[in-house]
């Protein structure tokens, strides 16, 4: 009962507090759509928030009822848990949520993440393909070794571009982005984006450039240390839509 009351209070707080889910900051001005053809200096994977479906008339949303997803995610040899859709009042959230912990290989080996990565099922498929088809071969080519883990962020984060109050939603807020700061090898060594990217002539530097270039063929946004100082320590990968027909790619 106490938990019920807490949840109810929390939901009310979330519904009426404009600062909920954001960092403490000045009042957010109303968001401005990008002018057609505008290509600002890109900082973070961005996209307009998905339009939320209107609530059914006469049927107020009941936060106590969690809608169980009807979509079933099919990801062969990937270790994940299907989760209920994430819904918020500030545009963050997505359906077909999976929490991925490992990507299995044909050999039976697995490539692990430091913790569950919350992303969409579709995005998880792109990540798994990149790991299996690009990251693993690049590690064997450049380093003569297998990758056993990726150092990633949590995937889903309810935040705006560059954490600005009037920034557009990051693709992280829509479950279509992940950050990768390093790659763990079979011998325990870690190839670090921060430490090894600045050394392009070394094997780790070549490996990082190979996986970055390969990522640009799968994701629509790939930002690394050459993009800006925000990305000196990680690759940001997302599948956001850029341009009118979503064909514009950002690879930096
Ligand atoms: Zn990111």
TL;DR of this structure?
Pfam families: Extensin-like_C. The protein has helices at residues 2-16, 121-143, 193-196, 203-215, and strands at residues 78-83, 86-87, 93-94, 97-104, 110-120, 147-152, 177-185, 190-192, 221-223, 235-238, 250-251.
Outline the secondary-structure elements.
Layout: H1 2-16, E1 78-83, E2 86-87, E3 93-94, E4 97-104, E5 110-120, H2 121-143, E6 147-152, E7 177-185, E8 190-192, H3 193-196, H4 203-215, E9 221-223, E10 235-238, E11 250-251
Parallel strand pairs: 9-11
Antiparallel strand pairs: 1-4, 2-3, 4-5, 6-7, 7-8, 7-10, 9-10
Helix pairs in contact: 2-4
The chain binds zinc ion.
Q: How would you characterize the overall build of this protein?
A:
With 252 residues, the chain is an alpha+beta fold. It has one domain. Helices cover 22% and strands 22% of the residues. Strand 4 and strand 5 form a beta hairpin. The termini are far apart. The model is unreliable at 4-66 (pLDDT under 50). Zinc ion binds next to strand 7. InterPro entries: Extensin-like_C (IPR009683). This is Extensin-like C-terminal domain-containing protein. Residues 1-21 form the signal peptide. Residues 77-244 form the Extensin-like C-terminal domain.
């Amino acid at each position: 009962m106490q938990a019920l009351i807490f949840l109810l209070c929390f939901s009310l707080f979330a519904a009426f507090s404009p600062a909920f889910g954001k960092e403490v900051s000045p009042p957010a001005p109303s968001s401005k759509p990008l002018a057609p053809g505008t290509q600002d200096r890109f900082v973070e994977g961005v996209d307009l928030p998905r339009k939320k479906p209107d609530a059914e008339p006469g049927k107020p949303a009941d936060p106590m009822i969690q809608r169980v997803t009807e979509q079933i995610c099919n990801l062969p040899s990937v270790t994940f848990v299907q989760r209920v859709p994430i819904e918020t009042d500030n545009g963050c959230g997505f359906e077909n949520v999976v929490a991925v912990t490992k990507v299995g290989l044909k050999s039976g080996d697995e490539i692990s993440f430091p913790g569950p990565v919350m992303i969409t099922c579709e995005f998880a498929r792109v990540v798994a393909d990149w790991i299996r088809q690009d990251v693993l071969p690049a590690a064997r080519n450049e380093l003569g070794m297998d990758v056993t883990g990726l150092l990633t962020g949590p995937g889903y984060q309810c935040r705006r571009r560059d954490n600005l109050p009037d920034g557009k939603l990051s693709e992280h807020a829509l479950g279509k982005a992940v950050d990768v700061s390093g790659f763990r090898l079979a011998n325990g060594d870690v190839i670090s984006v921060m430490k090894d990217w600045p050394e392009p002539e070394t094997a780790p530097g070549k490996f990082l450039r190979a996986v970055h270039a390969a990522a640009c063929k799968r994701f629509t946004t790939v930002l690394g240390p050459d993009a800006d100082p925000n990305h000196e320590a990680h690759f940001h990968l997302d599948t956001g839509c850029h341009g009118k027909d979503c064909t514009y790619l950002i690879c930096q």
